[in-house]
Design goal:
two-stranded antiparallel sheet; 2% strand; mainly alpha
Amino acid sequence: MSSDIHGSPEAPTPDTASLDATQREIPSWSDPLVEGATRPVGGPLGTHAAVGRHWFWTPLRVCLLLAILGLTAGWFGKAACIQQYVTDDGGVELDWRSGRQYVAMCYSDIVPLYTAERLDDPGTFPYATSWVENQGTEHEQVRYMEYPVLSGLFQWVNAKLTHAWTGAAQAGWLPAALPVAVYFNITAFFLSVAWLVTVWAVARTARRRVWDAAIVAVSPLVVVHAFTNFDALATAAAATGLLAWSRSRPVLAGVLFGIGAATKLYPLFLLGPLLVLCLRAGRMRAWSAAAGTTALTWTIINLPFMLFLREGWSEFFRLNTQRDMDPDSLYNVISYFTGWQGFDGPLAPGEAPAVLNTVSGALFLALCAGIAYVGLSAPRRPRVAQLCFLVVAAFLLTNKVWSPQYSLWLVPLAVLALPRWRLLLGWMVIDALVWAPRMFYYLGTENKGLPEGWFLGTVVVRDIVVVLLCVVVLREIYRPSRDPVRVAGIDDPAGGVLDGVADSVVIRRRRGPDRREARRDQSLARRNSMSAA
């Protein structure tokens, strides 16, 4: 069977593991950035190079090695925040003196949450243990674990492992360190495993473009934010869920989405694009299976806490409802630069920002409706990753909170939706660099930090770049011939039951060159599918 570097038109191969080297996309041949990066080591891959024959170093394993190097750099970036010092009375404390966590730009939520969530107490259990904040003031409030169930249990298990480690260290069996440092390192280890799973899932989902997973592995956002919070757990669940969907296993995909939703709510958003695409393709049974198992999985995980620890379980939802706009949201940008205070103004303790919540939710729903229209009216059915990226980006842009680590949600989706190395790495560098002005803004101008306007300026730049990525994705949806994934008649590597299927429900638009081009692409995809069968 003849083949070229862009794939095998006669019979698309279903699994990367069975691809010949010449059937994989070679980034040093197709991407100018990668081609330029290879020049110091001899240039792009030779036409007659013997590749794909090494007994160990497959593309996937190389990507995993790159991810380990990136995660190691990320750990060193946070290591300054787990240093200790000896106090005047001979005690040992965490060294966050003089705003070290901001000056060294090593801040991580993991460190303060160890004590803030009462995880340092061996007798606590998430959602059962409560405490009082701001006692004796008008802001007095009873608090519980503020994370979804699996994220809370993840923290609790790591705390238990920390208590076991410190007990063994006191007995002389293990090296001694501050418990919070031990807790951070244990947490970082499991978050690293989660990100490696994310890289693996992206590589398997990308199939012939397996090398695109290297962008996930070396992303500057991973170096900066892999250990800022616990979001790598959710990215692993979402990425493996998409992998299961790409293998036409909607029930397994639903289980993984449900696990992800019990860790962070954003994997639930992926069901929206799948609904639109399944409606267009007439594959609603597959979507129903995925959505049903998602709901069932989430319910099974949450039900014991809903029944027996309801007040603690609802803390996550209560706080997100009452939370005001964060400094890094577009609403705060508008408020700062225009002076407009029309969202809600000062809030009383425990009061929810009703106007802000309504505006944020309405804007997100409006954008979702627009994305649904795109999915149903595009000349060729969009790829799964393209719509998933647009939905998650829409949520981040319209949400009242864009915590810095939330950008990790976009990394695997962006790589699958828009595998253009130079464009993606440019966005990731800009997004990662927002961390520096953010830290110096939190340091405060009284401590020689940055004014708020400087920080918000970088937020605007970050948001503009994300919008530009969305525009490029939309352009490739309406011009499928410009999509680097859809070459040689390939339809959707992540499509699963949708891959190569004829449309059933389509919103008709005015016919034009893009529609004629799409019909040619669909005809070629059907011929290839019949040939493969």
